[in-house]
Specification:
By secondary structure, this protein is mostly helical. Among the domains are: 1-70, no CATH class; 142-216, no CATH class. The protein contains twelve helices and two strands, in the order ααααααααααββαα.
């Protein structure tokens, strides 16, 4: 039976059955045993419409009432709705006021209750959906590294340093050692140019050396 036919044929009868259910403190799967497939579908649509309208504690009361008979997919959708509403509210309020919003502000902005927001913020990291999202971000890491590598080989020194650090080729200790060694002396073939030797050169001679080095090094290295 289609929805329109169901509504025209026995809407009042279904509404009475649903009203009885919603009058209970809790609704279990056993309470739906005398509902056929179309009636269960219609009951689900009614609950969805109510959730879209209800706010704060009233929404929590309905969710708690129907939790036991709610399909797993619907629970997932509710979690995703709450998560998106809370994260977007945090972003908007932070940009608006320049500080992290409190739970009361989030409740006013989202229409969710303080209890729902508190519970979500406390438990979201262990929720399977959050874990799945983090795995998706991790899966994109090779793509980010590939883009970083492309920037590095095109001469972006910062990208090169970040890439080498990330893949473990270099670390701060190794870099400090290299810099320290470079500060001690520079060897060109059999000629060693140490810091002591540099101190003895005139300003003109130092400028000449700097000009030669600038000509042979890639652009940006001297500034780095």
């Amino acid at each position: 039976m289609k929805k329109k036919e169901l509504v025209s044929a026995s809407l009042s009868g279904i509404d009475k059955k649903i009203a009885v259910l919603l009058g209970q403190k809790k609704i279990s799967m056993e309470d739906l045993e005398n509902f056929d497939i179309d009636e269960r579908r219609y009951f689900g649509e009614v609950c969805t419409q109510m959730l879209e309208v209800l706010k704060d504690e009233q929404r929590d009361i309905l969710l708690e009432k129907i939790e036991a008979c709610m399909p797993a997919g619907n629970r997932q959708q509710i979690w995703e709705y709450n998560h998106q509403a809370i994260t977007q509210a945090i972003s908007r309020l932070t940009l608006r006021y320049g500080c992290m919003p409190n739970k009361t502000d989030l409740a006013d902005e989202t229409g969710l209750s303080r209890q729902t927001i508190t519970k979500h913020l406390k438990e979201y990291k262990t929720h399977p959906q959050y874990v799945e999202e983090m795995e998706q971000f991790k899966m994109m890491a090779p793509e980010v590294m590939a883009n970083l590598f492309r920037l590095a080989v095109r001469g972006d020194i910062r990208a090169a340093r970040l890439y080498l650090d990330t893949v473990g080729v270099t670390n701060n200790q190794q870099r400090n050692t290299i810099v320290s060694n470079q500060n001690n002396y520079i060897q060109i073939n059999n000629t060693i140019l140490s810091q002591e030797n540099l101190k003895r050169l005139s300003a003109e001679q130092l400028n000449q050396i700097e000009s030669v080095v600038a000509m042979v090094l890639p652009e940006g290295v001297m500034a780095g």
